[in-house]
Amino acid sequence: MTAAHQIKMTTKVKSRTDTSQVSVLIVDDDLINLLILEKMLKNMDLNIVKAGSGQEALDLSDKHDFALVLMDAQMPGLDGFETSKQIRAVHKNKDLPIIIVSAVSKTKEFILKGYESGAVDYLLKPIDQFQLKSKVTVFCKLFEQKRLLETRNSELSQLNLQLSKEISKRKKAEQELRFQVIRDPLTGLFNRRYLEESLEREISKAKRQKISLALIMLDADHFKNFNDTYGHLAGDFVLKHLSDLLIKNSRREDIACRYGGEEFVLVLPGTGPVVARRRAEDLRIIVDQGDRIQYRKKILPNITVSLGIALLPYHGSSAVELITAADKALYQAKGNGRNQVVLAEFENSQIVPEKHTEENAPSA
After folding, report:
1. Which end of the chain, N or C, is surrounded by fewer C-beta atoms within 10 Å?
2. CB neighbour class for 166 (10 Å; exposed up to 12, middle 13-18, buried from 19)
3. What is the mean pLDDT of residues 12-39?
4. Average confidence (pLDDT) over 15-19
5. Which CATH number does 3-149 carry?
6. pLDDT of 331 above 90
7. Quick one: residue 282, left, alpha or beta (phi over 0 = left, psi -120 to 50 = alpha)?
8. d(CA 182, CA 195)
9. What separation in angstroms does the CA of 309 have from each of 75, 134, 229, 291?
10. Where along the chain do the CATH 3.30.70.270 domains lie?
11. 8-state DSSP, 190
12. What is the pLDDT of residues 273-290, one digit of tens each?
């Protein structure tokens, strides 16, 4: 067969791909051989794709997914061995099964060369139809199982992704719910419920570590008159301003809460009376001497705060006792003229508060 006839024949070879069927690529430079192979596989419900040269086989294998390649060994240009090697070198085709088809006798050298090129099996011409269909059936079933597994894995990945999103949404919703449960909606500070829980926990911790704990109760002075004069919205704005000051002037371990109305509580773990009084006085000065508050293009008058301090173990050993003592000291500060700090009295005048390691710490 002349080269010219070979080229002319190759141009008659047509390729067809159908993604709904399993595709098999048959490669042979002889059109008659291609037609014989196609006829043998005709009743197997396969999408038969034909290539008349090694280069055409390379091009088709790049564009489509095949379950199997039946590769003629002897072809001009790229022979079957080299074509197989180049097909398998492409990542997506690294597991593509290739069966070498040849009229060459079954020799050891031939078999080794086929395996070295990436072929998984071989068939000798003239091809036995039963043997051909048996081999094609096996590889096509393997391909279908692989494709089904890939589909299942893809579906599973999508389900996992969807599940991860749902878990993330649920965690976010739980965090938001938790935030709503323990946070004051106006100020963003912890609420009274959280104070009661966390204060008992901090008291237990302080007792175990044998350290003191301070509780400061803070109240905005003349706040009812302020609300009556400027309105509740302006009052809420001032309360938010006070809460921001508390957060700004708190340590990481401190617990700032809105106790109710215009009352706030600041829990200072590991803090003795000297530092507690200084922290409270610093807060009083910051509020008293701070910048005027602007609300809706109006400058509001400065407000002041009164503060009462109670300490563990000097004023009680429970949350209720400490809150009661701090509230009593706050009431005393109000009665003494407001805008001042009062440390709750020690019931036993002989008790001298021990100096605390943080009493030399810088003020807030």
Report:
1. N
2. exposed
3. 79
4. 52
5. 3.40.50.2300
6. yes
7. alpha
8. 9
9. 98, 91, 30, 26
10. 184-360
11. B
12. 999 999 999 999 999 998
